[in-house]
Design a protein that fits this description.
three-stranded antiparallel β-sheet; 15 helices; seven-stranded mixed β-sheet; single chain; Aspartate Aminotransferase, domain 1; 12 strands; binds pyridoxal-5'-phosphate; 2 domains; alpha/beta; 391 residues; Aspartate Aminotransferase, domain 2
């Protein structure tokens, strides 16, 4: 009998997907004691009480059924009103789809818009799921660099150089995971011009839009009506409202594209979790003071970590959004994998090697400050000891 192996049993698309460099690393962390983790990118806060209570009430009221495939109208209207209020961009409720986080929205996006072989331009380093979702949908990833000398934003000329007749979309994700970079308005406007010139779709992951520090978030589809018509905006509740475990987010897009995404969603998910939808409705109603409070605390931790890392000789670009720092670790004489592994082994501090986020991450690690202030202080003490041995 023929021997079965993974490549025969799994599709080529799936077999060739790389395991996430983050998960691999945290499997090791899970086996260790007293680790201070600056690793996983999720809020350490529990979901604010009014939102929690809304979820509990929803269950107790017997809201235990499917909703419309789109998601509850109240949620979609709430998302649309919120975007109008924050960025003055207008979406109708049937241009909003409630999803199982931005994660699902990414899957729907590429399933809906890509033919096999269509190319998507993605600046790297970036969130680990972007390339995988393009590949799963049969697309081709074209990576361009988001360089430190451009404060980890995109050089529009790099986009122009990457365009071919097969280019279907440009992907942007600001504020950025893993660098904390934000996109200045001028850069966004240039990207918009290119998208118009080459008739491209823009996919904008704005999940960290509410976590910006001394910076006004630029919502891409709000730049002008023409751009709104070619943009798929992805957003969510995970980060700003500390709701990662609820699995709720949304996609906003012109009707024709949203209908396509809805078709994929209805056959794969049916409807986003009902409890989470009710909690998200409450988040939009009463979550704002909590968002502000958490953001103020992240900002305090951000300043502690950036100053501390720079003091240790780990040169760190000032992040203006999300909750990540991206220090250059070359002063340690190690590459990023060795640095992360040795730091974990010797001092029980977990960071993620920058190369887990794609090309351009070499020589950097990601250190997340969604961790208590006192733990960041202790992590910095341990790193100081580490650098005095290795710096
Ligand atoms: C940039 C970015 N996009 C999307 C996601 C996924 O978010 P969600 O919890 O909404 O699926 C994350 C999570 O880390 C992220 O960092």
């Amino acid at each position: 009998m023929q021997k079965t192996n993974e490549v025969q049993r799994l599709s080529k698309r799936v077999a060739e997907l790389k395991p996430s460099g983050i998960r691999k690393f945290f499997d090791i962390v899970a086996t260790m004691k007293d680790v201070i983790s600056l690793g996983i990118g999720e809020p350490d806060f529990t979901t604010p009480k009014p939102i929690l209570d809304a979820g509990i009430r929803s269950l107790q009221n017997g809201e235990t059924h499917y909703t419309s495939n789109y998601g509850k109208l109240e949620l979609r209207q709430g998302v649309a009103d919120n975007l109008q209020k924050l960025y003055n961009v207008k979406y109708e409720p049937d241009e909003v789809l409630a999803t199982v986080g931005v994660s699902e929205a990414l899957y729907l996006t590429f399933m809906a818009i890509l033919e096999p072989g269509d190319e998507v331009i993605i600046p790297t380093p970036c969130f680990v799921a972007y390339q995988a979702e393009v590949i799963l949908a049969g697309g081709v990833v074209v990576e361009i660099p988001a360089r430190l000398e451009n404060e980890f934003t995109i050089d529009p000329d790099d986009i122009r150089k990457a365009i071919t007749p097969r280019t279907k979309a440009i992907f942007i994700g600001y504020p950025s995971n893993p660098t904390g970079a934000v996109a200045p308005r001028e850069v966004m406007i240039e990207i918009g011009k290119i998208a118009e010139q080459y008739n491209l779709i823009v996919v904008s992951d704005e999940i960290y839009d509410r976590l910006v520090y001394d910076f006004d978030h630029v919502c891409f589809p709000a730049l002008d009506e023409g751009l709104r018509e070619r943009t798929i905006l992805l957003g969510g509740f995970s980060k700003a409202y500390a709701m990662t475990g609820w699995r709720i987010g949304y996609a906003c897009a012109p009707k024709d594209i949203l209908q396509g995404m809805l078709r994929v969603h209805q056959y794969t998910i049916m409807s986003a979790p009902t409890t989470a939808q009710d909690a998200a409705i409450e988040a939009l109603k009463s979550g704002e003071p909590h968002v502000q409070e958490m953001r103020t605390e992240y900002d305090r931790r951000r300043r502690l970590l950036v100053t501390g890392l720079n003091r240790l000789g780990l040169s760190t670009f000032e992040p203006r959004g999300a909750f990540y720092t991206f220090p250059n670790i070359r002063a340690s004489g190690m590459d990023e994998e060795t640095f992360a592994e040795t730091l974990l082994k010797e001092e029980s501090v977990a960071v993620v090697p920058g190369s887990a986020f794609g090309p351009g991450g070499e020589g950097f690690v990601r250190a997340c400050y969604a961790t208590e202030y006192s733990k960041i202080e202790e992590a910095l003490h341990r790193m100081e000891r580490f650098m005095s041995r290795h710096g």
